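PROTOCOL LOG
Step 1. Enter all chains and additional molecules of the complex.
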Amino acid sequence: MKKILVIDDDDAVRDSFIAALGYRDYMPSGAGSGAAGLESAGAERPDLVFLDLKMPGMSGVETLSALRALYPDLPIYLVTGFYGEFLEPLKDLRRRGVLFELARKPLTVAEIRAIAEGVLAPRDRTPAAMTAARALSQASH
Amino acid sequence: MTASGASSLEPAQVHLRLYVTGRTPAALEAIAAVRNLEHELRQAFGACAIDVIDVLDDPDAALRDGIYATPTILRLKPGPARRIFGRIGAGLSLRDELRLDDAASSAVAG
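Step 2. Run joint prediction.
Step 3. Record the structure below.
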């Protein structure tokens, strides 16, 4: 089972991610705050994290930094609008060598699944699996 | 394809654009894959253009190109546009995934 953690203070967004990811061998779970997400990740290492950038209390940036300190190699997607003002704090993280990927909000179900498939697919992919992954990637375009 | 095996595409008719965020392992893997592909494409098609864009530096470009996550590689030419997201270069040939030869043949056939 692949554990996917969704950290977002918006209940509807969090639920939509979990619904989208409830297939294959994925075990999605949610946390409504950065602090709750950190606690969940600390208890059991996830295989992939979707992390909202703008949250009250412990921000997405703070949560990301804390997750990185726990798990340097954990795939983490920061979900945000691709607008300059939202990305400025992330440039500082980049300068400090904190690694993360970006996903643009809002994401469709197909896009959420394509991200999960792309990250969690086994490294040695068979042609059949690649064909399926490619079809999924194209379906979102 | 000509008798020599080289494509009859005009120079710089291959244009790829790779979107990354910083230098994550996936970004480095994708950058290495496109740089290897660039050499292969120059052999086959002559000049080609490859852009590597960090979304943090040019988010407007990412929005215009419809990028939803990193890393993503976009085939701009030959058209139509084709996007590949994910473990770029980690599986099948990137050239095959981008279907460059199919698109090139279509372009030549006109």
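Step 4. Note key features.
Residues 1-8 of chain B have pLDDT under 50 and may be disordered.
The longest helix of chain B spans residues 25-45.
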